[in-house]
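FORM 12-B: Structure-to-Sequence Request
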């Protein structure tokens, strides 16, 4: 049994939003297993505490661009974080985010580590970011990076308000036929935050966890044991409809799914990504 330390409790609180006592009880029941404790919290329907002490919200912007390649197109999105919106909306910060984006494109970077190690003139991107922090008077860092490729790549950049730079960028790669509905799919990704393209893409461990949570929740609700498997399948289908892009109801016409949109034009979605400011790993 892993020791239930203050650091472990803090980790689970930050990841679930549950209160301290609920987290301690879940960790004790899970014998210190963080993943299992999170499942217990979800299965018991424990609500977020509302305040996540000790976790500072990250601000900044997401810069994006689509470039032509020999195979078609590649879309890049790079999150650059600052401490405040005040810095994030300054022209110099936005300009610097574009510079970092171009560094990512030149390096063909797929993650933050590759980007930070890439050359930026006579220095590295890491050194340039450190210098930028001194210039802006705030902690500045590279956050999430996304890259998708295909015959066509559509990008949608969403702003929380007109005076702020983009805070959400969604990208989707499609075949040529699918390009006809790619913009609508990109809007959907931005608004509804799908995690996977199709249900086959959901990792086995995630699916197993969802099935276990659904089973425990059904039993806790007093459902007859013989009908629990059917209820679990229904809850899993609801999970797919919420998290799988092609199974989500189209926000502009809930009578059809995003998968239906692509079928109507005889096209296919190949890959997608969504980057939102402050939603990556917390420091």
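FORM 12-B RESPONSE
SEQUENCE OUT:
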């Amino acid at each position: 049994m892993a020791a239930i330390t203050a650091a472990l409790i803090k980790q689970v609180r930050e990841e679930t939003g549950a209160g301290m006592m609920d987290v301690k009880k879940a960790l004790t029941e899970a014998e210190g297993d963080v993943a299992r404790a999170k499942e217990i919290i979800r299965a018991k329907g424990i609500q977020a505490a509302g305040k996540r002490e000790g976790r500072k919200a990250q601000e900044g912007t997401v810069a994006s661009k689509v470039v032509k390649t020999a195979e078609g197109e590649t879309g890049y999105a790079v999150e650059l974080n600052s401490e405040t919106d005040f810095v994030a909306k300054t022209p110099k910060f936005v300009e610097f985010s574009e510079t970092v984006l171009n560094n990512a494109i030149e390096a063909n970077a797929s993650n933050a580590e590759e980007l930070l190690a890439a050359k930026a003139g006579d220095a590295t991107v890491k050194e340039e970011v450190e210098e930028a922090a001194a210039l802006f008077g705030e902690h500045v860092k590279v956050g999430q990076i996304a890259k998708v490729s295909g015959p066509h790549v559509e990008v949608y950049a969403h702003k929380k308000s007109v005076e702020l730079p983009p805070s959400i960028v969604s990208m989707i790669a499609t075949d040529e036929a699918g390009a006809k509905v790619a913009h609508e799919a990109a809007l959907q990704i931005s608004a509804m935050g799908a995690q996977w393209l199709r249900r086959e893409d959901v990792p086995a461990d995630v699916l197993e966890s969802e099935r276990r949570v659904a089973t425990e929740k059904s039993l806790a609700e007093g459902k007859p044991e013989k009908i629990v498997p059917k209820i679990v399948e229904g809850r899993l289908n609801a999970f797919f409809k919420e998290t799988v892009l092609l199974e989500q109801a189209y926000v502009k016409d809930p009578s059809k799914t995003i998968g239906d949109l692509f079928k109507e034009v005889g096209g296919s979605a190949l890959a997608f990504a969504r980057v939102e400011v402050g939603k990556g790993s917390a420091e």
